[in-house]
Design brief:
Distance between the termini: 49 Å
Low-confidence stretches: 176-181
Structural class: alpha+beta
Mean pLDDT: 91
Helix content: 10-25%
Largest sheet: 4 strands, antiparallel
Strand order of the largest sheet: 2-1-8-9
Number of helices: 4
Radius of gyration: 16 Å
């Protein structure tokens, strides 16, 4: 059995065009995370912990390979900026989080072993994480223009040490729903 050795997260990849915009925003706010993958963490940040080191890698890949057959690509759009209570972790929220919440629930209960996590799931895209927070930076965040373009999520990944280990195309039947104008 080959197990996960480092903290491994399950994430939805944000497409390159939007990821480049987020990288630019991060570069202005928090250079420590500017280079990290731009993703929506579905397992490992909130709702459930990262994948257990007792989880077999091959089994986890098989589980996710089957699971993505039931998840169609979907479209999302950012709505506002928020932060986690009592932290300097700032992020973009989404207009409609229902699909993200359903995917999180599917992942959490798919049979992969996860570590515990005390925080409830919150779909988000991080823009500021560990950099020093100043009043000027807080003001910059509060007045920031949020990218309003709708974008498609079509890939789910295992990420460890800020690198993609495996990528899976979402291949369920597409049923696009336009997100608020």
């Amino acid at each position: 059995m080959l197990n996960f050795q480092k903290s491994t997260f399950i994430c939805l990849d944000i497409p390159d065009i939007m990821a480049n915009k987020i990288h630019s925003i991060r570069q202005n706010l928090d250079t420590q995370i500017a280079w990290k993958p731009v993703v929506i963490t579905i397992a490992g940040s909130s709702g459930c912990g990262h994948i257990s080191d007792e989880q077999d890698i091959i089994e986890a890949n098989e589980i996710i390979s089957n699971l993505v057959k039931s998840i169609a690509p979907f479209r999302v759009r950012f709505s506002k900026i928020n932060n986690f209570p009592e932290t300097d972790i700032y992020f973009f929220e989404f207009i409609d989080e229902s699909v993200l919440n359903k995917i999180h629930d599917k992942i959490k209960h798919c049979g992969i072993k996860f570590f515990e996590n005390k925080y409830p799931f919150k779909a988000h895209c991080t823009i500021h994480f560990k950099g020093k927070m100043t009043n000027d930076k807080r003001q910059q965040i509060q007045t920031m223009v949020i990218p309003k373009q709708e974008f498609e999520i079509n890939t789910l990944s295992f990420i460890s040490d800020y690198k993609h280990l495996s990528r899976f195309q979402l291949i369920g039947q597409q049923n696009y729903k336009r997100i608020g104008v």
